[in-house]
Amino acid sequence: MKIKTFPLGGYMTNCYLVWNEKNEASLFDCSDSRLQGVVSFIKEHNLELKNVILTHGHGDHIGGINEIMRLFPNATLYIGKEEEKFLTDASLNLSYAIQGYDFIYTGKFTPIKEGDSIFGFEVVDTPGHTIGSKCFYNSDAKIMISGDTLFRRSYGRFDLPTGNLSQLQRSLKKICENYPEDTIVYSGHSEPTTLGEERRVLKSQGMF
């Protein structure tokens, strides 16, 4: 399994293109409609985009889904079942504050829940940044895509709509204590890190 990072949008959100030996690919988060780099890479490497998988519903993670689904209509869009309303409610997805316009998506999608498996990734419930935030863990590659739940040396905000500090603390403890320390974490807004390193940092900060 291979992974490539595409920082997109005004917040330079990390969007991750992951593909396997069959050239099947999934895109984790899609923050901006200016997708030339992503689209060119997919075409140049003869990849088939099978899935667009969202870690949560904030505008800087979903702002490009109208365009990506238009360009790849056979792909399946996934989002946490608790986050469905973020797709059509600009006051929840904060798109105006983030992007300067109200963003909504009314196309097809498939809701996901903890324990589901998509493209070899286990879906992990990690509420706190938002009520339906998800992390995605691949045991073969030992990688976790964490969205805005966990960053290198930091963690996601909990003061936005549906955010909750207690839930975030439980989620951070859950992923740090139940998955291998050498798991590489790919977050929404920082450089890669490992769960072991972030566990030590979070414990020193009193997060759990």
SSE layout and pairing:
Elements: E1 2-8, E2 13-19, E3 24-28, H1 36-44, E4 48-53, H2 59-62, H3 65-71, E5 76-80, H4 90-93, H5 95-99, E6 110-112, E7 117-118, E8 121-125, E9 134-138, E10 143-147, E11 150-151, E12 154-155, H6 165-178, E13 184-187, E14 193-194, H7 195-204
Parallel strand pairs: 3-4, 4-5, 5-6, 10-13
Antiparallel strand pairs: 1-2, 2-3, 7-8, 8-9, 9-10, 11-12, 13-14
Helix pairs in contact: 6-7
Describe this structure in words.
The protein is 25% helix and 29% strand. It has helices at 36-44, 59-62, 65-71, 90-93, 95-99, 165-178, 195-204, and strands at 2-8, 13-19, 24-28, 48-53, 76-80, 110-112, 117-118, 121-125, 134-138, 143-147, 150-151, 154-155, 184-187, 193-194. Strands 1-2-3-4-5-6 form a six-stranded mixed β-sheet, covered by helices on one side. A six-stranded mixed β-sheet has the order 7-8-9-10-13-14. Strands 11-12 form a two-stranded antiparallel sheet. Strand 13 (184-187) and strand 14 form a beta hairpin. Helix 6 packs across helix 7. The protein is globular. The termini are far apart. The mean pLDDT is 97.
Give a summary of the structure in a few sentences.
With 208 residues, the chain is α/β, with parallel strands linked by helices. The protein is 25% helix and 29% strand.
Query: Unreliable segments (pLDDT under 50, ≥5 consecutive)?
Result: none
Main CATH class: Alpha Beta
Sheet of most strands:
6 strands, mixed
- Care to count the β-strands? 14
Radius of gyration: 16 Å
Second rung of CATH, namely the architecture:
4-Layer Sandwich
Distance separating the two termini: 32 Å
The chain-level structural class is alpha/beta
Beta-strand proportion: 25-35%
Number of helices: 7
What order do the SSEs take from the amino end to the carboxyl end, as H and E?
A: EEEHEHHEHHEEEEEEEHEEH
The whole-number mean of residue pLDDT values reads: 97
Provide the CATH topology: Metallo-beta-lactamase, Chain A
Number of separate structural domains: 1
* Residues in helix, %: 25-40%
* Overall body shape: globular
